[in-house]
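Hi support team,

I'm filing this because I wasn't sure whether my run with iron/sulfur cluster finished correctly. The job status page said complete, but I'd like someone to confirm that the output block is well-formed before I use it downstream. Pasting the exact inputs I used:
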Amino acid sequence: MNMEERSMGDIEGKSSAELKNLDILKLDRRTFMKTVGALGASAFMGTYAADIAKAIAETDRNIVWLQGAECTGCSVSLLNAEYPDVLQAVTDLKVAIQYHETLMPQQGLFVDGVPVEDAALNANYALEHFLDSGKPFVLVVEGAIPLGPDGTGNYCKIGDESFLHITQKAAEKALITVAAGTCAAYGGIPATPPNPTDAVGLQFLKTTKGGALGAGYVSQAGLPVINIPGCPSHPDWVLLTLTAALLDLIPTDFLDEFQRPKMFFNPDYTIHENCPRRGFYDMGKLDTEYAGGKCLWKLGCRAMLSHADCPTRLWNSGTSMCTQVGGPCIGCVEPTFPEGSLAVEVEGIPALVGVDINTAALTATGAAAVGVGAHALRRIVPSKED
Ligand code: SF4
Ligand code: SF4
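And here is everything the job wrote out:
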């Protein structure tokens, strides 16, 4: 057994009390992420805040946060984080946010039509100034990157420079590059057809690799873009990934095929599996109108196609999640989001059940149910209450 296998085994056998007594700074990368998963992000941050703060203080790492074609929802989501909140993350963890257009005081100041060339006053110069400093930093991008018109990127400009150019320039120097939210990861809403600005994500356009930085892009740490999708992204997903990045604790194999951290977006797990309404689905009790309290499949729920830990992590400081409060999962973490009409039943049963819904209906009519998931059959034979 090599050291890595031994560490992983150790974690799996430990109680949560034992997990809280580990020296996390001596853990290898995979064990670090495994420990975060075993304890839960919030408990992990709370337990190890002092150690993390000390480690980050010694690393002299910084964050540059750029915002392109977006609604600022992912920043707002992060600002709503409570355990820890952003203030704690910035002060206790000593994270230096060097540039964030919504949070910093600098603006694009002009005098007589000429930008004020002072990093203390003007946002563009603040960024230039920091990028020229040579200090190591983690780049976070929020929002899609318009390439139009004609590849110039001029549909989205900050000051007199295209967001495309600013992003490429920063990504070239970044130790690690993170896409916060589905727009930055895959293009999201701005890149949805007809996509008038020719918007893309950092390293993807929907499911196709490429994007603003190109398929071959790797950061200074040798990593591709780390995608933290979501509309918005969950603050735990962002804070934990940034913590791991700042501590240089990101293992090379922790991303799925769409470059999402598997610890939050497990490819073997869909939201449907832990949905609080799952019992209704299994009984074939399906709402056809909102506010009914049963399974939301017929109202367009896409949780069977969506990989994220929303039902176990919950949102709004552990309060609730979409299906719990009566909203179908719209699959906001998937590269194809938003596709089609979100309030319409998804055609075809996903691979989890393994058969198309129309096939299932025919099979049920013919009473040849062999191989068809029992709950799939019950879904198409509504109960009397339905
Ligand atoms: S509401 Fe959605 S996630 Fe929940 S059981 Fe129904 S289909 Fe599955
Ligand atoms: S439940 Fe679905 S729509 Fe809601 S946040 Fe999670 S992935 Fe997004």
